[in-house]
């Protein structure tokens, strides 16, 4: 009986952890577009700020990597930029990583913003 209860508890914890890390489908809009009108020409800047990246991280990554990047279920990311380049981080975001990092959790400009932000963590 104790083994069944333990298995049930572990299974429930695993499912809840994966659900929290998965985050579902991203419905966030790119709010990092800054448009300025210079005479008759309009220019758009699509680069996200560090604040935008921190917000995206908080919404999609902190449940596994911690509010301060200290690691929990996922690894510590406080100095990940000294270990991985922006392109390597983007690859992990796109393809996932064995051990629990799901593929495609963040994509597009959000992934680029997170990768740039994390690559600066040295």
From TrEMBL:
Pfam families named among the record's database cross-references: Cytochrome_CBB3
Family annotation (Gene3D superfamilies): Cytochrome c-like domain
Top-level lineage group: Bacteria
Record keywords, A-Z: Electron transport, Heme, Iron, Metal-binding, Signal, Transport
Signal peptide bounds: 1-19
Compositional bias (Low complexity): 26-47
Residues annotated as domain Cytochrome c: 48-122
Region Disordered, annotated ranges: 24-48
PANTHER family found in the cross-reference section: CYTOCHROME C-553-LIKE, MENAQUINOL-CYTOCHROME C REDUCTASE CYTOCHROME B_C SUBUNIT
Protein name: C-type cytochrome
Lineage of the species this protein comes from: Bacteria, Bacillati, Bacillota, Bacilli, Bacillales
